[in-house]
Design a protein that fits this description.
- Residues 9-22 have a biased composition (Basic and acidic residues).
- Pfam families: Cation_ATPase.
- Residues 1-27 are annotated as: Disordered.
- One of its GO terms (molecular function) is nucleotide binding.
- This protein has 227 residues and is of the alpha+beta class.
- It folds into two domains: 24-155, Calcium-transporting ATPase, cytoplasmic domain N, CATH 3.40.1110.10; 162-226, no CATH class.
- Helices cover 35% and strands 18% of the residues.
- The protein has seven helices and five strands.
- The protein has helices spanning 69-73, 84-96, 111-125, 131-142, 162-169, 184-193, 211-226, and strands at residues 33-38, 46-52, 61-67, 99-109, 147-155.
- It has a five-stranded antiparallel sheet with strand order 1-2-3-4-5.
- Helix 2 runs parallel beside helix 6 (184-193) and helix 3 (111-125) runs antiparallel to helix 4.
- The longest helix has 16 residues, at 211-226.
- The radius of gyration is 23 Å and the shape is elongated.
């Protein structure tokens, strides 16, 4: 686990989960008990697991979570808000480099809270009707007050000759689209590296909004192009 960042004066920073740092000949195996898994879904855009640490570490229950930056930052603890801006700066830089990002977080879950929550989770996992919604609601109940551990950035390289193949299709009048759930900066970078986008293009961006707002944006862009 990364070292918890220093907090501003007068505020206590988050404490990272302890781990066994014994190495070399003294290395030993630890057994962590998996208690529950909150699987990824398209609404939450994150997943989490609950585990119990070994007795020699205290036997506490730990929630470990990873997911999309906006969904992770929505549930982070106020005690970590002071370094959210720094993480966001890194995420934007990673995205501009075409890297796919994830934010990591954790929190210790009190025993009483876990027991109460697990009743709801177990009931949801056995539900015959509305199971997906029940599991999502159970996950939302426990995925809160998260302490940020950091962010990861992974390069997803294009396959060989993808840019050359796409470049040869464009002169034939083939219309090419990229559909992705990545951040806009990542999508633009991949579009350029794959040659779906070219530096000389005038790239227009439609911002999020209601259907009427998006329609108005499209109309404004169309009027600009044909005028």
């Amino acid at each position: 686990w990364p070292k918890a960042p220093s907090a501003p004066e007068g505020r206590e920073g988050p404490q990272a989960p302890r781990r066994d740092t014994t190495g070399g000949k003294g290395a030993r195996t630890q057994q962590w008990l998996l208690l529950a898994v909150n699987k990824f879904d398209a609404d939450r855009k994150r997943m989490s697991v609950l585990v119990r640490e070994p007795d020699e570490l205290g036997g506490r229950i730990l929630l470990l979570m990873k997911g999309a930056d906006n969904k992770m930052l929505d549930v982070c603890s106020h005690s970590t808000l002071y370094h959210v801006a720094a993480i966001q700066d890194h995420l934007v830089r990673f995205a501009k480099e075409g890297l796919r990002t994830l934010v990591l977080g954790y929190r210790f879950v009190p025993e009483a809270e876990f027991k109460s929550w697990f009743v709801k989770f177990d009931k949801a996992s056995k539900a015959v009707e509305g199971r997906s919604e029940a599991l999502k609601n159970a996950a939302l109940d426990v995925e809160k007050d998260i302490l940020l551990a950091g962010a990861t950035a992974i390069e997803d390289r294009l396959q060989d000759e993808v840019p050359e193949t796409i470049a040869s299709l464009a002169p034939a009048g083939v219309k090419l689209w990229i559909l992705t759930g990545d951040k806009r900066e990542t999508a633009e970078n991949i579009g350029l590296s794959a040659r779906v986008l070219r530096p000389e293009m005038d790239i227009q961006v439609l911002r999020d909004g209601t259907p009427d707002q998006v329609h108005a944006q499209i109309k404004a862009l169309y009027d600009t192009i044909v005028s």
